[in-house]
Design goal:
RibU; Riboflavin transporter; 79% helix; globular; transport; membrane; 7 helices; mainly alpha; 2% strand; Arp2/3 complex 21 kDa subunit ARPC3
Length: 192
Amino acid sequence: MHSKMAYMTRVAILASAATILMLMDFPVLFMPTFLKLDFSDIPAIIGAFAIGPLAGCLIVLVKNILHVSSTQTAGIGEIANFLVGTGFVVPAAFIYRYKKNRSGAVIALAAGTVIMTLVAAAVDYWVLLPLYQSALHFPPEAIINMGRAVNPLIVDLKTFIVFAIVPFNLLKGIMVAVITLLVYKKLSPILH
């Protein structure tokens, strides 16, 4: 019973930190304005490394459930964040589980970044952008035009994915990975 309570407490604390970080998002230069960077995956990856993949997934889920009350996307943005976040956290945690040292963390975070980017590209193209179009009546031309305003290479949804979604998620993954590498060893004794 005590270990369940400790597990739930650690997940709740990390999910709270992730929720606060999710509220502190900011636009990225040379990206469409609706692609905003936040560091809410850092508590999730720290939890996943320290407690396990399920904990990381729960942290990503809880932060998105808490964030949905302040959404402007009818929950679609939170669905996207959950799918992309778990695409980063879960594979990285499974890899780190088998090699718990600095090189294992680097490999895990690099793999998580690549998998997250692939998940984001596929989910955005086949699920989320069509969902924005049908649920919010946001036409594909508006998305393309927002992308083209910052990058003239964006001419259709495929080039939007290649020149906006992929670089954005690579940048996010790299930044989250670097910060995680800097803070994880300092925080891990507290979580254990």
